[in-house]
Each structure stands twice: as structure tokens, then as C-alpha cells.
Amino acid sequence: MKNKIAPSILSADFGNFARDVKHLETAGADLVHIDVMDGHFVDNLTFGAGVVSALRSQTSLFFDVHMMVENPEKYVDDFAKAGADSMSIHVEATNHIHGALQKIKNAGMKASVVINPGTPVEAIKTVLPLVDMVLVMTVNPGFGGQKFIPEMMDKVRELTQIRTDKKLNFEIEVDGGIDDQTIKVAKAAGANVFVAGSFVFNGEVEKNIEKLKEELMEKL
Ligand SMILES: O=C(CO)[C@H](O)[C@H](O)COP(=O)(O)O
């Protein structure tokens, strides 16, 4: 599967949000990772569909929206209208994960399921045939700048094996603490979509994305 770098705009300059998002295209990003937080599912608040809609005109890059909100199924139509290309929802955030993923697909977006560090792969086994991507959190969600949890790689390896055994096609994304070292560990385990916030936005964005891509090309 193609390796993709997905900068998390949680670490962008909120005072120059449009400029930072626009810049990601020329800086070599493959996706824009957009962290939506509601102050309930996680202890932080960010932005909603209105901001996504405003950013849509800034770039043609794929909008990978990560919903850290309770009952995300309530917002599917709003984000589809705002121009989201995919919506990732937590299995821990809804009683209706299968129906919520179907709703996302019916709204014309790619559907992705997310598991927190404390949640086993077992919890999402029944929806794997339905999803375009699985997001394995490599930190507890809510804040950027946390340390990568290496034990999560067992889950990435387990998902890679299930995908082969069941002949499924979902991508595997990792999110949290991804830098020029941990990206290699995640790739070796089987991930192909790498979310990086602080590593990308701390310093020169082009150089940081280039560094991550170089590390992906290195032989392990
Ligand atoms: O989902 C997130 C937090 O909940 C962020 O996308 C993630 O933490 C990225 O930030 P960093 O690369 O700084 O760890």
C-alpha cells in the first residue's frame, strides 16, 4: 500500500490556519489530518464542520477528519457537506459503530474506525470488511506532543495479518508521537498512513515532511 504522510493541523498556527493548510500541498503532504474534539470524548476542544468548510477552498488535498467526539454519527452529513473526504470515528464513542460507518459511506466519504490505546483489535473485528482504513492511536487522544506508545505495534501487526488472511483492503494509519524514528517502527509493523503534528510543524514544514519520507524509503 502507498505510504502517506498526513500532517495533523492540530499543531498548525491557528492564527494563520488557512495559510498553513494551503502550504501543506507544496510542502509534500499526502493528506490533511483534521482533529475534531468535543471536550467530552477528550479533554480538549478544537473545531467543527464550519472550519473544515472554510479550509476546503485552500487546498485540493484529501481531508482526513478524525472525530474525537461522542456520538459522531450525528455530524456525518455536516462534515460531508463541508468537504471532508474521509471520517474516522472511535469505536469507544458510539453504541452503533456498524451503522455509523455505513452512514459515512452512504454520505459519499471513506469510512475509518479508530481504536484508543486501551482498546483491543477484537473490538473492531466485525466492522473490518466495511472500512477503508483503521486508525490505531499511538497516544491517548486529546493533545499533540505526546510520546509514541510502542506496544501499539502489536495491534498494527495483528491488523496486517487479519487483512491478509481475510483478503481485505483497509489502510492502517497511526497517530501520535510520530517522528523520524517512530515512523520506521510503525512502517515495519505494517502501517502505511502516518499522522504527524508536532514533528511536521515544529520548524520548516517542507524539510520535516521530506525527512519523514526519506526515513520511509530507508531499508529497515
Ligand atoms: O489525534 C491527535 C491527538 O489526539 C493528534 O493528531 C496527534 O496527537 C498528533 O500529534 P503529535 O504528532 O504531536 O503527537
Automatic annotation (TrEMBL):
Binding-site residues, substrate: S8, H66, G142, F143, G144, G145, D175, G176, G177, G197, S198
Annotated binding of a divalent metal cation, by residue: H33, D35, H66, D175
Residues annotated as the enzyme's active site: D35 (proton acceptor), D175 (proton donor)
Reaction equation(s) it catalyzes: D-ribulose 5-phosphate = D-xylulose 5-phosphate
GO cellular component: cytoplasm
Positions in coiled-coil regions: none
InterPro entries listed in its UniProt record: Aldolase_TIM, Ribul_P_3_epim, Ribul_P_3_epim-like, RibuloseP-bd_barrel
Cofactor annotation remark: Binds 1 divalent metal cation per subunit.
Gene3D superfamilies: Aldolase class I
Obligatory cofactor(s): Mn(2+); a divalent metal cation; Zn(2+); Fe(2+)
Annotated PROSITE patterns: RIBUL_P_3_EPIMER_1, RIBUL_P_3_EPIMER_2
SUPFAM superfamilies, alphabetized: Ribulose-phoshate binding barrel
Enzyme class per UniProt: isomerase
EC number of this enzyme: 5.1.3.1
GO molecular function, one term: D-ribulose-phosphate 3-epimerase activity
CDD domains noted in UniProt: RPE (cd00429)
Pathway as given in its UniProt record: Carbohydrate degradation
GO biological process: pentose catabolic process; pentose-phosphate shunt
Main function: Catalyzes the reversible epimerization of D-ribulose 5-phosphate to D-xylulose 5-phosphate.
HAMAP family: RPE
PANTHER family in the record: RIBULOSE-5-PHOSPHATE-3-EPIMERASE
Family: Belongs to the ribulose-phosphate 3-epimerase family.
Protein name, UniProt field: Ribulose-phosphate 3-epimerase
Organism: Lactococcus cremoris subsp. cremoris GE214
